[in-house]
Amino acid sequence: MSFFISEAVAQTATAQPAGQQSGMSMIIMMVGMFVFMYFLIIRPQRKRQKEQEALMASLNKGDEVVLTCGMLGRIVRVEGDYLVLNTGDNIELKFQRQAVHAVLPKGTIKAI
After folding, report:
1. 33 shares a domain with 80
2. CA distance 70 to 104
């Protein structure tokens, strides 16, 4: 019986240094995962968010825009967080600024 106990103690003595190395490699892997997530997910999302905020701040009367729902229109008035769009034949609709997806070049609506 004592033969098995000394064997078990010997196995645990060699396993401890390997556990310490494993802990260090786990920390390095976690840091690597964070760096990976930052460059592939967080950084591009922040860049898109800044571009969208700049777009919303630069909206003016007369700009031709496309909304996230796909509707095209020309801005008639800017009222705080809302835009009034002329979508054709004197139809004016009110939308939030956040609904704007992109600003189109002048004359795009007439060309369509």
Report:
1. no
2. 12
Instruction: Locate 11 and state its tokens.
Output: 């196995």
- Structure tokens given for 28: 């390095």
- The token pair that represents 112 in the structure block: 């369509």
Tokens 């997806």, residue located: 101
Q: Give residue-wise pLDDT tens across range 78-110.
A: 999 999 999 989 999 999 999 999 999 998 888
- This prediction has a pTM of 0.64
Q: How far is CA 9 from the centre of its chain?
A: 52
64 vs 85: CA distance, rounded Å = 9
Torsion of Cα atoms, 55 then 57 then 63 then 69, to 10°: 60
Task: Answer for the pair 84, 93: CB distance below 8 angstroms, yes or no.
Answer: yes
- CATH code: domain of residue 79: 2.30.30
